[in-house]
Amino acid sequence: MVEKRIQPLARDAMAYVLAGGRGSRLKELTDRRAKPAVYFGGKARIIDFALSNALNSGIRRIGVATQYKAHSLIRHMQRGWNFFRPERNESFDILPASQRVSETQWYEGTADAVYQNIDIIEDYGVEYMVILAGDHVYKMDYEWMLQQHVDSGADVTIGCLEVPRMEAVGFGVMHVDAKDNIIAFVEKPADPPAIPDKPDFALASMGIYVFHTKFLLDALRRDAADPNSSRDFGKDIIPYIVKNGKAVAHRFAKSCVRSDFEHEPYWRDVGTIDAYWQANIDLTAIVPELDIYDKSWPIWTYAEITPPAKFVHDDEDRRGSATSSVVSGDCIISGASLNKSLLFTGVRANSFSKLEGAVILPNVKIGRRAQLKNVVIDHGVVIPEGLVVGEDPELDAKRFRRTESGICLITQPMIDKLDI
């Protein structure tokens, strides 16, 4: 007798990525693109982490719900995620808010973004749904979360971070018992409930949910029929299940993917200019907290064909050089010096310019003798010759978007207004 092979649960799951958010705290960085489409790490976009996690976990059916200024995001996915094949039982659906349910109704909330596409989900006939946020940076094997969901008999399993208790005031927090059953879900509590086995920590929601598909679709239909619902997972669906069903917390540390160089579970919401700058600059460390070089868990993205990076000139005061920096393809460092900086594809840094703590998005041109410190420069900006940023806080704040910690976001409209 031949034993039946047990397939990974991920093979019978669909990942549904909620990627419609604007990300308004990133200010001008999201004027032309949704937060999941913001560049990250030299080559990728933020959404590539959730999508790569799903792919690496063995999930072969993926849907992405888009809404706010979605063109950049959709174009990226069409270019970089177009390799799924229906004949291999694979699918990749881009699901814009297209008024499919009502001619006047766009996605009204995260739950509605799934509800409006119920017919597509049902057509695939998958057993499990993995609902993901498309705007966080982390590496996670969802198979472990699926296994816990099935083993525990939960109606919903919620991915959770262990965070210092008083740092959880800005999150949705799970109040759990000793077996990680969720007793209550509290949104942004002033006094977050502690984890029973770690009283100094709280469990914060990652916005990752696992359901049996039938249960989820029934829950969405019930919610859609409630005129008082805001159509949101965190505000409506999850609290209802916590009260009337079985909700279980899944701790991120159990499924976080780490290479030999990563010691702590890494998860970042890069939703502010400061957090975005810091997470990118962290990658320039000798041993960064996030290992993007781990070939066992690759972060897939649009593999743009570019020539190699190039460093030219070798005079005493005009040397193309970089220390503790990440430099992407098609960059030319022409007599400029970089320190602790991250450059995306196609940057041109011209002679005598100096960059320190700089996150430079694609196709930026940096003029001669520019001195840039602790900056984020948006896609395609042309930095004029001799521009100095990072030395005069008051002047920086008048010209650019300067945070309290001193990081300056620079966009082309800001440059165009300069009187130089």
UniProtKB/TrEMBL annotation:
The Glucose-1-phosphate adenylyltransferase/Bifunctional protein GlmU-like C-terminal hexapeptide domain, residue ranges: 307-410
Binding site for alpha-D-glucose 1-phosphate: 107, 172, 187-188, 205
Transmembrane segments: none
Gene Ontology process terms (BP): glycogen biosynthetic process
Site location (Could play a key role in the communication between the regulatory and the substrate sites): 67, 106
Cross-referenced CDD domains: ADP_Glucose_PP, LbH_G1P_AT_C
Reaction catalysis annotation: alpha-D-glucose 1-phosphate + ATP + H(+) = ADP-alpha-D-glucose + diphosphate
Nucleotidyl transferase domain sequence ranges: 16-284
Tagged with keyword Transferase: yes
Gene3D superfamilies per UniProt: Hexapeptide repeat proteins, Spore Coat Polysaccharide Biosynthesis Protein SpsA, Chain A
GO MF annotation, one: ATP binding
Keyword ATP-binding attached: yes
Top-level taxon in the UniProt lineage: Bacteria
UniProt entry keywords in alphabetical sequence: ATP-binding, Carbohydrate metabolism, Glycogen biosynthesis, Glycogen metabolism, Nucleotide-binding, Nucleotidyltransferase, Transferase
This protein's pathway: Glycan biosynthesis; glycogen biosynthesis
InterPro entries documented for this protein: ADP-Glc_PPase, ADP_Glu_pyroP_CS, GlgC_bac, GlmU/GlgC-like_hexapep, NTP_transferase_dom, Nucleotide-diphossugar_trans, Trimer_LpxA-like_sf
Classification via Pfam families: Hexapep_GlmU, NTP_transferase
NCBIfam families xrefs: glgC, PRK00725.1, PRK00844.1
Function: Involved in the biosynthesis of ADP-glucose, a building block required for the elongation reactions to produce glycogen. Catalyzes the reaction between ATP and alpha-D-glucose 1-phosphate (G1P) to produce pyrophosphate and ADP-Glc.
Assembly and interaction partners: Homotetramer.
Name this protein carries in UniProt: Glucose-1-phosphate adenylyltransferase
Organism: Rhizobium pisi
